[in-house]
Amino acid sequence: MTEKLVLPNLATERLILRERTLADLTASVKLDQDQAVTEFIHGVWDGSPRHVAYVKKRIERQYGQGLGYWSIFFQDDPTQFLGWLMLTPVEGSASLVKIGWRLTRNHWGHGIATEAAQAVTQYAFRTLNLPKLAAAINPANERGQRVAEKLGFTFKQPISVGDEQLALYILPQDRWTALQQK
Ligand SMILES: CC(C)(COP(=O)(O)OP(=O)(O)OC[C@H]1O[C@@H](n2cnc3c(N)ncnc32)[C@H](O)[C@@H]1OP(=O)(O)O)[C@@H](O)C(=O)NCCC(=O)NCCS
């Protein structure tokens, strides 16, 4: 059996991100069950065994070296699950990696998603040396797009993912590096 790959902890001014584990399963399922959180995300988010099995599989799955999900916590309260950040391969692409974010609603509006996503983006470019990152976002999801734009992503094209019509955003490493120097 292949051993599960271990993601590094990532720290920001306010936050600590550590690999999402089965200890975060219940909190992850609860997060999805908030209809405002999953408003723009297709899936079964009703807390049913099917939903729980889906999240469990996402937690246990191996995504490739250095890729996967981080759970987000405050530095000064490492027990309260705030949500997650992910870096996972784009289905059907040999090399493209996508970033995604999901936060508990009571923590929206404090810059947490952007702060956590910036740390994961830095890791993707500085540690993994990925040439670019993708984000696939529902065009109606303005909050999600706003986080991508604040990181420097720009809209590339509409894409179909399963039965969903999403907007593909791209952030090349050199653009991100240039933005850090401003
Ligand atoms: C998308 C999502 C993660 C955004 O979370 P968020 O906390 O609202 O995002 P941000 O980190 O950008 O914070 C938003 C606001 O916090 C405010 N803010 C407060 N303190 C801040 C700080 N210290 N630093 C930065 N922003 C701060 C800003 O005004 C910012 O608004 P702006 O867009 O006008 O700049 C969240 O809405 C969510 O989980 N949605 C459901 C899941 C989802 O749709 N995910 C994306 C699917 S692709």
TrEMBL record:
GO-annotated molecular function: acyltransferase activity, transferring groups other than amino-acyl groups
N-acetyltransferase domain segment(s): 15-175
Source species of the chain: Levilactobacillus koreensis
SUPFAM superfamilies per record: Acyl-CoA N-acyltransferases (Nat)
Pfam families with a match to the protein in the record: Acetyltransf_3
Protein name: N-acetyltransferase domain-containing protein
